Amino acid sequence: xQYMVDKAYITAKVFKWARKSARMPEEIAASKVAxxxxxxxxxxxxxxxxxxxxxxxxxxxxxxxxxLFFLPDIPDDFKPLQDFRKPGSKELSTSSIFIIREIQxxxxxxxxxxxxxxxxxxxxxxxFTIKDNPVKVAQDILSTLNINxxxxxxxxxxxxxxxxxxxxxxxxxxxxFIHTRLKLDSNEIQGFAIADKYAPFVFINSDDWNAPQLFxxxxxxxxxxxxxxxxxxxxxxSIKNIGDYNPVELFCNEVAANALMPxxxxxNLVRKTFDNAKEVFKNAKxxxxxxxxxxxxxxxxxxISLNSYKKLKVELNHEYNEFIKREAEKKxxxxxxxxxxxxxxxxxxxxxxxxxxxxxxxxxxxxxxxEPTKASNLLNVKVNKFPKLEEQMYRWA
Length: 397
Hints:
By secondary structure, the protein is mainly alpha-helical. The protein has helices at about 10-20, 25-30, 35-45, 50-60, 95-115, 135-145, 155-165, 210-225, 245-260, 265-270, 275-285, 290-300, 305-335, 345-355, 355-365, 370-380, 385-395, and strands at about 170-175, 175-180, 180-185, 190-195, 200-205, 230. The model has no long low-confidence stretch (mean pLDDT about 90).
């Protein structure tokens, strides 16, 4: 006897919207369920229907609840974040859309929790505007977070910044991928900020090295301080009057430059600092920034001439290319020896969720305030792995 396969009588326009809002081409969506593109189009026009299993697979691929496909109309989705990126930037891909949606969901949940618990608003959100002096904003960020950029307590400054920011109620997420086959492109998105007074949230694309990540982090903190929610790319110190930057981005770059490389630090550097690339690298490392960032800052403060800047930039590019070459050779040798250089799973998960957010969700779960399924969805971790996650939280503290 032949049994009829159960059909999923989805709402066609909602089904199509789910794919398009994930920025997923028809060909890729069809391949997820091993059907021709024409068959997918039939489902999206209502001419035919997928099986329940096929619809469930696509719900997972689009990162949407399966039940959403059966709504009578397209639901109100999270509003797109303001795009502060440079003109001509790549269109946001599926990876970027998914990470933005994931952080928006986390942020909306924790903001509602804080409101319901009558938590105080975070007072520094929107304390300044773009019309204020970026030096003053930088100083306020440093004093509020109790950070001295000339005397870090660790040799990895970004960790100190994250720890101090989270201790003041700022949620921070860092990752470079959605899953192993869906990675984030730093040219597309370097970071974004959600400037909410109950739960300010910052995301950093960790595809970059720690030095540019730190500059991006402080840049996004500046977004919080001026209450400018939005997406950023090409986050780096910019040479004055050069580059087609959004005014908000120029302002936040200036704040980050002043916070990480105070004027007195640059002016007090001995002249020999800028004699060669190695000295530039050494001093840049001491404050956790890239050599290029230090170079641009020195040029903007007239500590070095344009000719010196150009000469050193060539040297630094050469040094950087040599560094990349050495790293590639090192990885190749490790591969030959059978050594894995893969990042450790739980620290990656903790970074992606943020330590502060992870702890709050786990506390709510243990206290019975949220269902296991909700906690699992918020943390992207199965409930039976929570004990291991908590163990790693303490180990990597």
